[in-house]
């Protein structure tokens, strides 16, 4: 197959980790007889420096014409004082909106060789962590109206949170379909005791569930969910929730698995084109030092092969190579344990490629 992949290297460690993921993709292409063509799409702080905006139209066009998009990470202290509409993250929000990416899928899986990095009690970690957070991505408070005004002699800020039934329904379908391929249990998370948007969320998810009688549905409040994820994560299979709750809970979920450097995510809409990225940020504190763990980005590339290009064997080959590398005791600094071999970003990429 021939596939065109838009590449957003981004800022900080972005270029280092994406370079390793591209090299892994090239190894897979050579082994399985595919051709991947890469097209650079500048976004984030580097795009602000060059083009004056976080997402130039030319980059957006490159992404829209591609078969899929691979992203490192954007942002950094250099651009923290930019006005709100010129911050690096705005580029990402604009891209998600333009590509119609309404669902974000983030696996929270603990690699058995990394159980020592799990911050939970050993008896809790021993029960295993293997669930998926399905987050609504282009609705809710992040996409509502934002305003700050002078009211009665002081500043007052307002952010509007809104959801329509169709926005809830389409992400609920993704969650139920995913649960069917897993352990057939969906936990929907809301704050229906307080918020109208949550009451509509609960009602709509319950309606969608009628189309999936083989899948169990539970509803829990977001505050309880935050506790349950650390108390007994083994109870979860597929979590579905709105944008803001999903942002927070998916970070909590990834933290309990060990390192945020290990976790990929995919954002999808209608059709097969998606945006694939690691869940972490641009890690300015270690940028340019060959210290970044590229595994999250490499596993994001594997997700791209599986979900956008229908290349299951190729994705399996990458995931197996990551497992084998960890089993061989090869570790970047963020996941290093006594007795293991400490390597940098480039060496980790090479170790994984050699096992494909
Ligand atoms: P971060 O995820 O960049 O870093 C948090 C900590 O984790 C740091 O100590 C960092 O060194 C470490 N870390 C992260 N990824 C790592 C990796 N692959 N290997 C080893 N260690 C890793 O979060 P932050 O410091 O809050 O944010 C830094 C910048 O990234 C900010 O400008 C923020 O806005 C941006 N950001 C971007 C995205 C994105 O592009 N999707 C997401 C989150 C944050």
What does the model show?
The protein has helices at 14-32, 45-51, 57-65, 88-98, 122-125, 165-180, 196-209, 222-231, 243-255, 295-307, 312-327, 345-353, and strands spanning 2-10, 35-40, 68-73, 103-109, 130-136, 146-151, 154-159, 185-190, 216-221, 238-241, 264-268, 274-278, 330-331, 341-342. The model has no long low-confidence stretch (mean pLDDT 95). It folds into 2 domains: 1-114 and 264-356, Isopropylmalate Dehydrogenase (3-Layer(aba) Sandwich), CATH 3.40.718.10; 119-256, Isopropylmalate Dehydrogenase (3-Layer(aba) Sandwich). It has a 10-stranded mixed β-sheet with strand order 2-1-3-12-11-4-5-10-8-9, sandwiched between helices. The protein is of the alpha/beta class.
Write the layout of secondary structure elements.
Blueprint: E1 2-10, H1 14-32, E2 35-40, H2 45-51, H3 57-65, E3 68-73, H4 88-98, E4 103-109, H5 122-125, E5 130-136, E6 146-151, E7 154-159, H6 165-180, E8 185-190, H7 196-209, E9 216-221, H8 222-231, E10 238-241, H9 243-255, E11 264-268, E12 274-278, H10 295-307, H11 312-327, E13 330-331, E14 341-342, H12 345-353
Parallel strand pairs: 1-2, 1-3, 3-12, 5-10, 8-9, 8-10, 13-14
Antiparallel strand pairs: 4-5, 4-11, 6-7, 11-12
Bound molecules: nicotinamide-adenine-dinucleotide (NAD).
């Amino acid at each position: 197959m021939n596939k065109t992949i838009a590449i957003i290297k981004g800022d900080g460690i972005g270029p280092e980790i994406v370079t390793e993921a591209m090299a892994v993709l090239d190894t897979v292409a050579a082994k399985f007889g595919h051709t991947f063509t890469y097209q650079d799409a500048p976004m984030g702080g580097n795009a602000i420096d060059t083009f004056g905006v976080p997402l130039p139209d030319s980059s957006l066009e490159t992404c829209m014409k591609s078969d899929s998009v691979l992203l490192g990470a954007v942002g950094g202290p250099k651009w923290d004082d930019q006005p709100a509409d010129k911050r690096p993250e705005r580029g990402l929000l604009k891209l998600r909106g333009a590509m119609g990416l309404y669902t974000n899928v983030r696996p929270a899986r603990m690699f058995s060789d990394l159980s020592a990095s799990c911050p939970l009690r050993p008896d809790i970690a021993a029960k295993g962590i293997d669930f998926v957070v399905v987050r609504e991505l282009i609705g809710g408070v992040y996409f509502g109206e934002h305003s700050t005004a002078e009211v009665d002699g002081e500043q007052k800020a307002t952010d509007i949170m809104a959801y329509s039934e169709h926005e809830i329904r389409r992400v609920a379908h993704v969650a139920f379909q995913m649960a069917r391929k897993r352990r057939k249990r969906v936990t929907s998370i809301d704050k229906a005791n307080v918020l109208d948007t949550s009451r509509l969320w609960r009602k709509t998810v319950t309606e969608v569930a009628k189309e999936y009688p083989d899948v169990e549905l539970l509803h829990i409040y977001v505050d309880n969910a935050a506790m349950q994820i650390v108390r007994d994560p083994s109870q979860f299979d597929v979590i579905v929730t709105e944008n803001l709750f999903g942002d927070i809970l998916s970070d909590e979920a990834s933290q309990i698995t060990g390192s945020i450097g290990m976790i990929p995510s995919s954002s999808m809409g209608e059709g097969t084109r998606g945006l694939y990225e690691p869940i972490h940020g641009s890690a300015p504190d270690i940028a340019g030092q060959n210290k970044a763990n590229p595994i999250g980005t490499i596993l994001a590339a594997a997700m791209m092969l599986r979900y956008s290009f229908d290349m299951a064997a190729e994705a399996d080959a990458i995931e197996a190579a990551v497992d084998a590398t960890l089993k061989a005791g090869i570790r970047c600094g963020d996941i290093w344990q006594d007795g293991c071999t400490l390597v940098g970003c480039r060496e980790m990429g090479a170790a994984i490629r050699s096992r494909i």
